[in-house]
Specification:
It contains 4 helices and 7 strands, in the order ααβββββββαα. With 190 residues, it is α+β, with helices and mostly antiparallel strands. The strands form 2 sheets. It has a 5-stranded antiparallel sheet, with helices on both faces. It has a two-stranded antiparallel ribbon with strand order 4-5. Bound molecules: nickel (II) ion.
Length: 190
Amino acid sequence: MSVIPIRQIGDPVLRRPARPVSRDELESEECQRFIDDLVETMRDANGAGLAANQVGDERRICAIEIADNPRYPYKPPHPLTILVNPTMDWISEETYWNNEGCLSVPDLRGDLHRSIEVVVTAWDRTGRPTEHRLRGLTAGTAQHELDHLDGKLYIDRVEDTTTLATWREFDLHQRERFVTHIRKVVEETT
Ligand code: NI
């Protein structure tokens, strides 16, 4: 397995919608190895998720995993989930205020709204159809990753650009207020 360099904002591959993967392609050794590398890269960078186009691959595949994450210590754990050809089949109208960062947008975080509950339909890495009902921050992570696969970045959804901050300034000026708020969201949704 190997760690792949993560593409950064400005790279056009981050702005192109990903292409669907066929079952034959998914089953190939090359594609299975790519999924291993995607997971390894996500873990190496302490990401909560990673989409294939973030490592320059245009297949509609992303990974989500929330263990003890130093980037987002308030996120509830979620086991490693590989989503192949994912779609959001149901999206709650109820939203919550979140603050996000992204491995492809270095040293920046900002406020945005995410739906509080979604249903993601996808294949797993073996091509088996799966359905994931996700709530709260995990739903937010899935929305962030599916946005990547549609060529969108979280900054496109930041309504109030005065909330944008470097990670250092976030810690100094915004973390306390945000963590108090987000703990409540986590309590209500887990
Ligand atoms: Ni991202």
